[in-house]
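Protein ECERIFERUM 1-like
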Amino acid sequence: MPFYDYIYDTMDQSSDTLYENSLKRKEETPNVVHLTHLTTPESIYHLRFGFASLASKPYSSAWYLWLLWPVTLWSMVLTRIYRRTFVVERNRFHQLRLQTWAIPKYGIQYRLKWQKESVNNMIEEAVLDAEEKELNRHGEVYVKKHPQLKVKLVDGSSLAVAVLLNSIPKGTTQVLLRGNLTKVAFAVAFALCQKGIQVTVLREDEYEKLDKSLGTISEGKLVTSKSYSSCKVWLVGDDLTEEEQRKANKGTLFIPFSQLPPKKLRKDCFYHTTPAMQTPTALENVDSCENWLPRRVMSVWRIAGILHALEGWEEHECGYTMSNIDKVWEACFKHGFQPLKVLKDRLKQRINNWSIKHLSQGGKEVFIKAVLQAIPTYTMSFFLLPKLLCSDLENIMNSFWWDKNGGKKGMHWCSWKALSVAKEAGGMFRDLNYFNIALLAKRGWRLLRNPNSLLAHTLKAKYYKNSDFIKSELGNLPSFTWKSLWATKGLILQGMGWRIGDGKAVSIWNGNWLSGNETLNSQNTDMNTNLENVADLFESNMRRWDEGLVHNTFTAIVAEKILSIPLSRNLHEDFIIWQGEPTGELSVRSGYRLPSQNG
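Tokens:
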């Protein structure tokens, strides 16, 4: 009985029935069900009924979740008692109703032999539950066991293969295949051999399995190797160990073909995300991230079921059965799913959107400056892009600048290098490599000017405990962020200077305290062993230069420079300034101008 009926004395026999009916919702029958499971005990908070702040970000095991360990333990007990799948997410895509069901088992339980029967029973129960709900729009064990199934079982292997093949960089001639040889691994190896790309494996048993499966197509393209450093591109599965990762060369690209990424990541290598695609905007009610993937990015195993429903395909895709890879890949684009974008793709997409318009050279200039060169700016503010990538981006812009309207190839009258010199020398556009360094140099400058900031404290504790940013070393296994900042030291040293206060912090011989970024010749220190800091050039207890000492120690030109430096009457400590700006603060404009002038 509703509480308000007691208050207002409106009790009636129909009140209970009316109230119960108002609370009931019509049960929604989905068209597509994605069957998944919990990864870790803490992943319960990443679900929609967990914390919104956690669900809206890629999953990670945060330290503060340990404070909720009693709640986590209780959730584990509940899932063990409940022992049934439960709905964790509901979405809509056009006319399709999508649901995600979670099996109350954790990732580690799937790898335990004595848990296999229990897990299989739960999966079978979920499949039969879906069959009972007549999901007619949409593993092989269950198909054979229940041949009358109307439900279509889709494991998404064909789409995973398509995404992997399109993730391998163009021009790759050799890849190393390492990890559990799943259906996806066999299919990728077959496709790579067909393309003429050499597939290298490390174990004899893996070679024998692949050679037997691939047949004559593998002749000359499937090889074994004992060297972990022979390939720059690794296709990796669940069985990859940390020790094997450590044997890879620096800069190796790891592309996972499994549903789970490597547990430990090397900071000097590159890691592609697990097979996934960008979802179209028509997909509704996307309030949480899927595991470690960003917002509105969905794993291909989940997308494959949606495509089967949209296209009305009748075959199962499980066990050794695989759908046509090209057909599935085309269906993705047809329904708005897109590969994860990189900078070059975004530039090309913008150009393609505008290339049909009849832009004059003046219009192209504005478009390059305001649109194309602005696309990588955010990324370049945090990371140092490889010079090869900067060159590729500039080549795309150069082609757009010289080509005729409609995409017709035009005459390239001069190189991009000539177009990207300083404006004073007749240049028109930015040099992306110099601009990248200037953006990062501003962040490095903040480490010097704000040594008490949280970022400065964090980096100092790890990379330069007993010195400062300028004197720091790169260190062993540095993070990509630190490598990017460290690469700007040369630029900062070129433009850095000192505003002389008490003169105690600045070295006479090694400090950039003279105009023109000039450091004094260290050979003079042999004759002036008692002169170390700039304060030694002051008259005793006076705020003025000792002119006699300065003239006797330095050449006439250097002495004039020193004596022209004004000294403040108010005593203060020496502090760093940027000599290219009147304010003394490094700006991106002055930072960019310095290397472009010297270059």
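Confidence is low (pLDDT under 50) at residues 1-8, 130-143.
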